[in-house]
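Summary for the funding panel

The consortium committed to producing paired sequence-structure records for every protein in the target list. Below we show the first two records in order, beginning with the earlier of the two.
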Amino acid sequence: MKQLILVRHAKSSWEAPLRDYDRPLTGKGIQDAHLVSSNIGNQIPKSFVVWSSAAKRASETAMIFAQNLSFPVESIAFKEELYTFDERKLEQIIKSCSDEYEHLIVFGHNEAITNFVNKFGNIFIDNVSTSGFVNIIFDKESWNDIENGVTQKVIFPRDLK
């Protein structure tokens, strides 16, 4: 069995004249990331590998989750290739995960996340919101073989307010 947790980065700022890659979280984004990460402890397996897009907004979101879920920031693998909006690229990256890991947590970007969860999960989600959390279980032994997963849990900040 493989468990995939996808988290869309928290709300980011468009105010500063920065490259998209360098946009930081807004105050609301920081609050929402803390809110969601503080309410998902029962959804997180005992052992897992964590990957995050290296973009500022995704990496900041991953660090907030690490703080609230008590896993070391040093354990997060920041991957340039996760800075993608294409679900086919996201699928390729996830399927490259070593089969020694049963549980993978990925922090990334839309449209890739919404399209991925709609392709691989069994619940249609119109839009995975910022700071959105989606937990999908696959009855497979290899990441490369994942398909037709069961969406176990979906949590958006609005669900917790």
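The next record, for a separate protein in the list, is shown here:
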Amino acid sequence: MSIEIIPGTWSLDKAHTEVGFTVRHAGISKVRGTFTDVDGSLTVGDSLAGSKVEAVVKSGSFDSNDSNRDAHVKGEDFFNVEEFPEMTFASTGITGSPEEFELQGNLTIKEITKPVTFEVEFGGVAVDPFGATRAGFSATTQISRKEFGITWNAALEAGGLLVGDKVTISIDSAFVLASNN
């Protein structure tokens, strides 16, 4: 495994990528979900500052292993996937070291765009047995779902709300080198 990444255009490897989130439920536990349809690209420049990431997540690909909850979250109370079928991310800057860095960018959910910062760990570069050059990354950030117009909630008998506002987004991704600069 190498710590240096080759400048060029890299395509997201969907089969080796997971976009997930965690949100507090009933104030006592956490609910996790994933999005199974995601696409993206990474353009690596000669430096971190000269690199960029773009991603598109299909909102309707939400999966929490509970079909009733999934239907509710895909509906008007949460993602409203009929009206807002995609969420997007476009980087605006990268700072830090090649091993651990911050990826700043604009996250758009339900046509509301807010700046976010992902803490990113670079996993390295390797050539697989089929000759493809791959790079791996893990990234996390936390957002307020209310800032993106996702405000549905229900009061609990003992006080508090059913769904927490803070959502942790976790991404484990692999990219495949498509072309060198």
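Regarding this second record: The mean pLDDT is 92. Residues 23 and 167 are 5 Å apart (CA to CA).
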